[in-house]
Write a structure and sequence with these properties.
Strand order of the largest sheet: 5-4-3-6-2-1-7-8
Largest sheet: 8 strands, mixed
Structural class: alpha+beta
Number of domains: 2
CATH topology of the largest domain: Heat Shock Protein 90
CATH architecture of the largest domain: 2-Layer Sandwich
CATH class of the largest domain: Alpha Beta
Bound molecules: adenosine-5'-diphosphate, magnesium ion
Order of helices and strands: HHEEHHEEEEHHEEHHEEEEHEEEH
Number of helices: 10
Length: about 325
């Protein structure tokens, strides 16, 4: 008799959750992605105990009807793509249809939702990957997702979570990075009645950068733009005086998706060149706008890495954009 078995769906979801949901900040990232994709322009996020006890995100986006709410918790259920080729023209942050079932498999989740054109909404409750109930309810238009007790059913994973302050720090960092380009959205983060982050809608990224990087940095930022080989680069560069010992203020975006990319980071460093002392990292935001068919976003379950078809072209575009402003007086203030 053979030894191979097909894993029950619950186990499969927990395995997927291991890749997608590393810590509370990963839940926040996935919920935020969904609310942005749903066209929300108002987001209220509440956390307790570093998100370990509670994460609640309320949006005023498109909402879901009852059938969609039930489907949303199924693996590979998405409204965002239908074919593999759609992956190469992606305009949404999500596309894998994995986040909600993953979150659901390792927490207690409650989703309340109402599309604006429906009179009543629904509230769905699930726990450890099992549906508990779905009931009609009054609700504001939009969606509220409440995630409690992350990893309550996998204590071995829960042990890896850090102190509340550390997890809260990760949540703030994640939110800041993702929300920066979506300047039409007003977002607020509260922790037990205390507001940790309040980003009103604004005309451009600068007001936001003032909150995120501090006013002194924001007013010194050098903004620069360049188009090369159809790749558009917009960058906000802090003068070297504001450099840091860590690269934690290097924000990189590909078509408004925040990513981590070693080579783009290196091309930023190259662009700064000798203006930076050894071992120092700049504070910088780089937006790369590129034809979606030239970048593969489906590389990593957490969608934080991409692969470029013509990586050299991207790196050259970035470093030359930063390099070109070398003679700008503002560098030497
Ligand atoms: P993905 O975002 O990759 O499609 P998810 O598991 O994150 O997968 O979500 C599944 C589906 O649930 C989405 O495709 C979307 O249709 C719906 N959905 C999730 N969150 C929201 C939300 N906040 N507002 C409206 N629809 C949502
Ligand atoms: Mg999603």
């Amino acid at each position: 008799m053979g030894n191979i078995r097909i894993l029950p769906e619950k186990v499969a979801n927990q395995i997927a959750a291991g890749e997608v949901i590393e810590r509370p900040a990963s839940v926040v990232r996935e919920l935020l992605d969904n609310s942005i994709d749903a066209g929300a322009d108002r987001l209220n996020i509440q956390i307790e105990e570093g998100g370990k006890r509670l994460i609640r995100l309320r949006d005023n986006g498109s909402g879901m009807d009852k059938d969609d709410m039930l489907l949303a918790l199924e693996r590979h259920a998405t409204s965002k793509i239908t074919t593999v080729s759609d992956l190469f023209s992606i305009k949404t942050l999500g596309f894998r249809g994995e986040a909600l079932p993953s979150i659901c498999s390792v927490s207690r989740i409650e989703i309340t939702s109402r599309p604006a054109d429906r009179l009543t909404g629904y509230r769905l409750k699930a726990s450890g990957g099992e549906m508990k109930s779905i009931d009609e309810t009054g609700a504001p238009a939009g969606t509220t997702v409440e995630v409690r007790d992350i990893y309550f059913n996998t204590p071995a994973r829960r042990k890896f979570l850090r102190a509340d302050r550390t997890e809260t720090g990760h949540i703030i960092d994640t939110l800041s990075r993702i929300i920066l380009p979506f300047t039409n959205i007003h977002m607020r983060l509260d922790d037990a009645g205390k507001t940790l982050l309040n980003l009103p809608a604004s005309e451009n990224e600068l007001n936001r950068l003032s909150v995120l990087f501090g006013r002194d940095v924001a007013v010194s930022l050098i903004d620069t733009y360049r188009e090369r080989n159809g790749i558009k680069i917009t960058a906000y560069l802090a003068p070297p005086d504001f450099s840091r010992t860590r690269g934690d203020r290097i924000y990189i975006y590909i078509n408004n998706r925040n990513i981590r990319d070693k080579l783009v980071t290196r091309s930023i460093m190259e662009g700064y060149g000798q203006r930076l002392m050894k071992g120092r990292y700049p504070q910088v935001v780089v937006f790369v706008d590129i034809d979606p068919s030239l970048v593969d976003v489906n590389v990593h379950p957490a969608k934080q890495e991409v692969r470029f078809h013509e990586s050299r072209m991207v790196y050259q575009a970035v470093s030359s954009t930063i390099e070109k402003d070398k003679t700008d007086d503002r560098w030497y203030k």
